[in-house]
Amino acid sequence: MCKEEQASKERETYIPSYLKEILKTQLIWYLINFLIIFFQLYVAFDIPLLNNIYILIFKIIGHSLFISFLLYCTTMIYNLSFHELGINFKNFIANTSLAINISLFLISGAIIINLTITNSKITPLIYIKDVNSFNQSLIYFILLFTCYLIPAFSKELFYRGFIQYYFKEEYGVIIGSIISILYYTFSYLDIRLTSILLHFLIGFITTYLYKKTDSLISSVIFQATYQASLSLYLFSFDKWPF
Fold first, then answer.
1. What is the pLDDT of residues 46-92, one digit of tens each?
2. At 48, phi and psi to the nearest 5?
3. Which stretches make up the CAAX prenyl protease 2/Lysostaphin resistance protein A-like domain (predicted)?
4. Model pTM greater than 0.90?
5. What torsion do the CA atoms of 212, 189, 122, 147 make, to the nearest 10 degrees?
6. For residue 21, what are the domain limits?
7. Smaller CB count within 10 Å for the chain: N or C?
8. 179-194, pLDDT tens digit by residue?
């Protein structure tokens, strides 16, 4: 074996090819999300409602482009099937029911926090003060949940369908799942303890749902519920960019 081939093999051993692909795709993910944050911060309208709609539309467009990119790479370049990525409708009703049951705890917690807001750092889209505002918030939640399905699918396709697939193939189901949860947690680049714990919890729940159902349906529903709940009841759009 010539020196060039040996050096190439050593570099491949040092950085596995699957990890290179994950990191390259992660950079694309960061680029799209940082563009979203940039437009949220520096391109804004004077009318709050119009500004919120604009932010949401930009998120949907950005994540739709990422979905197209990721599906092209995984199916055409890496030769993964939709089933390997978790895109299937097997046991659709049961998987949806499981996700809804777990998501109800998340929604309830967000509503309880909204009812007891005393921190100025928490700026929800709507404050629940009576029955009418509560009913109104449910209508807004349904609309937001529907809009967040695309960003949620983008995130789950990337972290569960793509990244977890490679970690599972490399390290097995249990170790691969643990590594993927930790990767998801620290990929947010937020070292605050509360943020780490929150992202770890969400990563654990979505990984559990994905592993239990072998489908992205339940984890996407939970992820959309998570994003819609935090945007509506706690942090609004501009305070929760990811």
1. 666 666 676 777 788 888 889 988 999 888 888 888 988 899 888 89
2. -55, -45
3. 141-227
4. no
5. -50
6. 15-235
7. N
8. 999 999 999 888 889 8
